[in-house]
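Q: For a teaching session next week I want to show students how multiple molecules come together into a single three-dimensional assembly. I've collected the sequence lines for a complex. Could you give me the predicted structure tokens for the whole thing so I can convert them for display?
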Amino acid sequence: MRDTNVSTETHILEAAFAVFSQNPGASLADVAKHAGVGRATLHRHFSGRDDLIVALTLTAARELDEAVEEATKDCQTYTHALEVALGAILPLAARHMFLATEPAANDPRVAEVYANQTRDLAHDIDMAKAEGAFDPHIPTEWIVQAYDNLIYAGWAMVTAGDATPKQAAALAWRTLTQGTAK
Amino acid sequence: MRDTNVSTETHILEAAFAVFSQNPGASLADVAKHAGVGRATLHRHFSGRDDLIVALTLTAARELDEAVEEATKDCQTYTHALEVALGAILPLAARHMFLATEPAANDPRVAEVYANQTRDLAHDIDMAKAEGAFDPHIPTEWIVQAYDNLIYAGWAMVTAGDATPKQAAALAWRTLTQGTAK
DNA sequence: ACGAATCGAGACATTAGTGTCTCATGCGAG
DNA sequence: CTCGCATGAGACACTAATGTCTCGATTCGT
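A: Of course. Below is the structure for the complete assembly, covering every listed component.
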């Protein structure tokens, strides 16, 4: 098998990220056109819309994992790792955020990915709590929610033209840590 | 004209809130069935999906205004009003949040409503800044974003069963004020 | 150069959602 | 009681999206 498969699939996934980010309700024909492939070719690689959304979700999760892994590999503390990870995730939000409103969480693979991400984040936050970054009396679940939603808030700042990704990440981190400190 | 009109429209709007909150992509037939009315009757009151979404948005905005107005009428400071308003808005988030992802912002009435809400919130935050609640060096736009998204985070806590609305509101307010304090 | 595999384009049938229309029913006002 | 109006049910046509299939062209490996 040639790598044309992989390349075509990548093009389709890239187009899907671009198109669905602008309009989550776009048709598969729009995605195919934007990818520069025929509609039939899209169906050769993804059986339907649901399949495509699942693939996008898994791709997004892998991108996030890689970005966070790369950014935090030299971090000495969980606290610093969370800060650096926030800065790495925020610029990717534009590509991934539309997936949050997709009802694709029925797929077991997607559910597993989401569960893993939430679990890992909760673990890191617990460790950072032990390092003194957060008030131990505040529920870890809240810090998880605040982490995710302040990233979203930062991304909104960026798209509104009110901040650079770096500035938005700094604001989000400051608000999170100072807001949940002892 | 009897009040049957108003009653039917109210039933349809209530059903639409309930159905779209669960599944934003639900069909108008689903809404009509849930409202206990015929599909034709729905079309007699709302010309189509867009019209219905606009009506939902305006209804939601009015509900928010009324709830905030009622909750904050005795507040002496802008800071306290923001805190009380947060507690009033959070329980309504379950009804309204699906509208955030609706592409109905093309309608001029909806756009005006959103602009007004954002402007008023920014104004109140500026006043609260003057009262010392927030660090004046932090962009008001950021505090607006953080306010909205921490409400969303609180609502997520509630739906996950990890907090009561009151607890979630307290966490959101604490995180916001402490996180953006001087 | 040859062959296998993939691709783009387009035809086709199917489905879901939508918008309109008609008609019989029910219910309240007068 | 009767009239009028809103309704529920359902038929109908229209549209957009989807999924499948075929065919000719292209491309890559051998």
